[in-house]
Amino acid sequence: MDAIFSVDPAKRLLIEVKENNVECAAALLEFVRTNELLERSMISSFHLDVLAFLRKAEPAAKLHGNDVTPNGVPEEVAGLIDSIGIQSKFATPERIRHYKAKGIKVDSWVINDRNALVRAIENGTESVTTDVPDLVCRWLGRSSLPDQ
């Protein structure tokens, strides 16, 4: 693992805790601390228990939640996170403004076609999650290759 994380120390990491398991989150947090990855990591989870544990155990951690419901996430979740991924069909301008007003960065997912990308940008999203990053780069007029 050390070799993997030392290849490019400038790379940011998005680590997702899939299970609603605080013990797993604790082990992950210990790994992140031990390997000095906290400053370049964002830890994501759909689960309130995991987010609440991480916020309490490591207030400096950057936390990411997900909004996949018509009503948005409960305020208690919004109070724990630094960024949120909103399922694209729920990423309305009003909802995006709501989160941004709380200082929460907004990502829309999954954006896999040009029209959805344009709509996400117009609605105010700050980033997108996609299965086709090469196409998104082309639509934005950017190279999909890293700078050399």
UniProtKB/TrEMBL annotation:
Q: Which Pfam families match?
A: GDPD (PF03009)
A biological process from GO: lipid metabolic process
In terms of Gene3D superfamilies, this protein maps to: Phosphatidylinositol (PI) phosphodiesterase
Where is each GP-PDE domain found? Answer: 1-140
Q: Which GO terms describe its molecular function?
A: phosphoric diester hydrolase activity
Q: What is the lineage of its organism?
A: unclassified sequences, metagenomes, ecological metagenomes
- Sorted alphabetically, which PANTHER family does this protein's record hold? GLYCEROPHOSPHODIESTER PHOSPHODIESTERASE, CYTOPLASMIC, GLYCEROPHOSPHORYL DIESTER PHOSPHODIESTERASE
Q: Which InterPro entries match?
A: GP_PDE_dom (IPR030395), PLC-like_Pdiesterase_TIM-brl (IPR017946)
Protein's organism: bioreactor metagenome
Name of the featured protein? GP-PDE domain-containing protein
